[in-house]
Amino acid sequence: MLIQDEVRRLRSLPLFSEVDPGRLKLLCFTSARESFEPGEVIFHEGDPGFGAYVIMSGAVEVDKGDQQEPFTKAASEREVAVVGQSSMLAEQPRGATVTALTPVEALHIRSECFFKIMSSCPQSSERMIRSLGAQIHDQDGRRRPIPRGADPSPN
Amino acid sequence: MEPRLFRYIWTHTRREQIFIVLLIAVSMIPFYLAFDLPKRIVNGPLLGQGFDQPDATQPFLDISFNIPFWGTVQLSPGWQMERLELLMALSFTFLALVIINGIFKLIINTLKGRLGERLLRRIRYDLVDRILRFPPARFRQLKAGEVASMVKDEIEPLGGFSGDAFTQPALLGGQALTALLFIFIQHFWLGTVAALMAMVQVAIIPRMRRRLIRLGRERQLTARELAGRVAEIVDGIQTIHAYDTTNYERADITSRLGLIFRIRYDIYQWKFMVKFLNNFLAQVTPFLFYSIGGYLTITGHLDVGQLVAVINAYKELPGPMKELIDWDLARQDMQVKYEQVVEQFESESLIDPARHALDAPMPTGPLAPLVLQGVGVQGDSGSAQLSEVSLEIAPGETVAIVGGSSGGGPVLGEVLGGLVAPTTGTLALGECECASLPESVTGRVIGYAAAGGYFFSGSALDNLTYGLKRRPGAEAEEPDTGRYGRDWRRREARRAGNPEFDLATDWIDHDAVQPAPAEDGLLGAVCTVLDVVELAEDTVAFAMRSRIDMEIMPDATERVLEMREALREELARRNMSNLVLPFEPDRYNAEASVGENLFFGAPRDPDTSLKRILQHPYFRQSLIDNGLAGILFDLGRAFARATVEIFEGMEQNPEMLQWLTYMTPEELPEFEQLLARTGNGGYERASQPDRQRLIRLSFAYIEPRYRFGLLTDELRARVVEGRQILHREMPEELKAQVQRYDPDEYLVGASLQENVLFGKLNRRFGNAEERLKGVVRDLFGQRPELRQQVLSIGLGHDVGAAGRRLSALQRQKLGLARVLIRRSIYYVMNEPLAGADAKLQGRMIDSILGFLGAQPEPPAVIWVLANEVLAQKFRRTVEISGGRLASDRVDPDIEVDESSRRLHAQS
Fold it and tell me: Which of B158, B523, B635, B797 is a plausible cystine mate for B542, CB 3.0–4.6 Å?
């Protein structure tokens, strides 16, 4: 899959739907493509988080331990899924264990690059905050909201 | 140390000095004979004196003396010779004398030089020996740079001078007196005038030079301070940068240099002034001869022959006089230098050499328990840091010392470690007071580790085993070969008063190694200790990054190939062969760049980059010949276009441009222009530099990393084909620089990691690096011998000056490892992990207590803690508050049960 396709598919995510395409391309450029076999763990709950994984193809299981029943996230022809997003945004350890259910193709977005690119483009970040707000609004009542702001841990 | 230089020189070089003076005396005979000969050649055979008749002969080598009141004594009549014969005979005698004189001079100078060098060696050793014996408190004021400058530079001229110290005045004084005597014989009054003038010279010049000596002393002090400051700048460079005080330091150095310049300039002015006066006085005497002697001659009181003889004789006087005065100056200068240095190395309370002696007697009684009796320590400011502390600690106990850093715990740790001597009270091992015990006992019985422990430049292994290097090991089986073999080294060391220790022997005390070495020897013990202090992973990382020096580890090749093989097998066993994409001769390696795929080899010398080799004309020609040039040009163009598109408008964001690794930010607009330039016509019409630039850019392309979709299967095949051609016809000079990838060969210029992987990590695998680390960890678990080999390579890592190439935590861990590998009865840990987080400290305390508790004879562990919570890991807790013993509790829950400790150690 080429970088152009990655950009196109990333735009299907609410998080990136309004972001300037040029920035999105740069984000893809700095991200790495990784693949996982069924049963392989992408990350464990409690691991330090260094970014998010955008699932380009395949399905993963998200297990939040005692908090919630495990559920599945999958990418389809038209849409991609994202895991590790909240840990990247909040700069906190992983809140769940994510395991590949089928062969998975993912784009590993590094938090450092994500934040630098977003802070360089006020319009993009403004639109992103809006879409995040909408997301929280949707989730309110259903789930605990994503923790607000960064709470830098001492380490 | 002997404060008077001459006494020092005389004491240590007396025999050689006398021998040299005697040799000089003997050498005078041929010297004067050679003086006399030219006159005889000129007068005899040349001018024909005594050859008035055609067949007249003259004696050659007739030896006779004129003894006053006795007459002539003839020892040998010699041979009678004709004029030409005599000329030849005398000429050859002259040649022989020249050679003999030269040889004498050679021998005398060599002897003098040797004497001087030996003395220099002795004094330098004496000084360093004193540094090693200074009381610890002395080092608070000492500047390393100043001391080093004294030992190295200030004392250096002494070597040259000591050879002349006695011989020069003897020789020159003799010459001057002879010349003076000769003048006296010619004419009494003129002789008196010459003698008077010489006396004036000898009296005045040294007086004037006193100022020079004072200035010399100032010069020495300021230069020494400069050396100290320069060393301080180097040591404190981080602080200087942190506070932006480089200009302040510049100003400081400038003012010092200014002062040194002023002093040196002063010295020059005065020195040449004195020189002028000296020359003047030397020339006044002939003036007196000409004027007074001339007057006497004209008035008939003196005949011309006598006056000429006196003037001729006087020519011999100023030379030796001048040199004698120079010698005197050097003498005073040296004396001052010597005093200045020796003064700095004087100390009232130097450690008794017996405490350092190798054969110091071991006390007979038991060295337990460790007893502090009413110990008090007074700080520099006079306040009491510790007072009336009494404690008894037996081997096997675990003691935490708490009470905060101002309480006095760290000071107590320093007292226990022997770094600070108690002002009052005593520290004793059983019945013996520590102060009277030799360091070989206290140093071995008590192991001490603190956060700021020093590391010496050298390998990690050198530093780790430093505490074991207490005495020279058994003689190395080195044949005494060559001129400078072992016997020579010993003899010379003895002659210069140095000890005969041989650095080349194995200094490691294998009996003191802890844990007691099993069949894997010292390395096994080292690896165990590295695991205890959690330094093994770092060491593996050092090894992986390092390039193995084949001269130090000639058998490494085989071991590395074995590792390469083992990793390949392990990956295959786990069905993860694809995690590393190996270099295969006829396949394109997806994770390697186009350049690496084409080049398919590693430079033998790590300093020459691939790029430079690729610039070789052979490569260029080869690319053109096989048609790759055009293809790569297009690839480079596409790559550049894609890059420019992504980074368009990012010029204002340097943070983002840093992600662009294959070109510099400045190159970005250049490539933009280049793209426009090469728009039509492509390769054929592009200029040579443009072609080169784009082709070189294409070398950096890696499809899975950049995902621009620029590589086709056909292109890959062409690159592989190009690779074969390149290597097939490569000229010899390039073959010497490039090593083709071969799975059965060690890559000389590559790091251990590159060698073991022999391929590229496949980043398509999620968490590829972590996975590889996991595989390697498992592999090491299965095959500990491989791990040991890697660790042994990692232990060769150079820690840098003062261990600066290690992180602070690595240094602290290495410091702990250094104390743990040596068996002691008491371990004093003085906040050895200061600054580390509590979790890590707790883990380390557990593993160290477990390790030490599992030893056959568990030692006492005394741990000064900043974090009181950790004290619960120890059986006994001693609280020091305000310098006094506040409490001393034993936690009965923690048993001194060895079996449980053993279990603990294994977990």
Answer: B797
